Description:
Elements: E1 4-13, E2 16-26, E3 31-35, H1 42-49, E4 57-62, E5 71-74, H2 79-82, H3 88-94, H4 108-120, H5 136-150, E6 154-158, H6 166-182, E7 186-190, H7 194-200, E8 203-206, E9 213-216, H8 217-220, H9 224-229
Parallel strand pairs: 3-7, 3-8, 5-6, 6-7
Antiparallel strand pairs: 1-2, 1-4, 8-9
Amino acid sequence: MALISCESVSLAYEGNTIVKDLTFTVNSGDYLCIVGENGSGKSTLMKALLGLKSPSEGKIFFGEGLHKKNIGYLPQQTAVQRDFPASVKEIVLSGCLANGKFKPFYSKKDKQTAIDNMKKLGIENLSDKCYRELSGGQQQRVLLARALCAAEKLIILDEPATGLDPVAAAEMYDIVRTLNQNDNLTVIMVSHDIEHAVNEASHILHIGNTPLFFGKKQEYLFSDAYNQLSGKGDTQ
């Protein structure tokens, strides 16, 4: 059974249907990139996959023991969040609260999980640093480490390289690829970077005004959806 199955899903925003009759599956080990024009419903779909929004039609199913509380989530940062006055260790540890259980203190297991994820992302030396004093790339690694504390099988990333310089963006993509390939973590990434998507992902979900597409990236490269979004097709 798939980790996530969407069957004939439609999603509305402010009363208007923006995603209609969407059917796709995400299997363990997949690296799915969700692409489409601005306003195509990518963020709304992401909220539905996280259980934060209900479909107006259709169903979303979780399989293989996956629960929405065990999905790691890396949202886009806001300016306020970038100036958050907490230590790296405190922020990463807070990811252990995602399971929804009230805990008056962090367990030894929680603390070890945070340490392991900081080491995995090469930020253990920043543990006691104030988050707002870090570079954009370092901050994004901290937030990814936080998301990994919640992720058991699946992580959802919303434009993880937005606002990063080219070097930091390339490093972030390398990290995500390693998590997918070496740690067998299933990845769903919303991205506006179509070239990155076709280079990195195993599967592409293309939504919006251009033709809907879901399938392997090799098939996507020959689709009308890819030609139109990438500007390689006839735009007349």
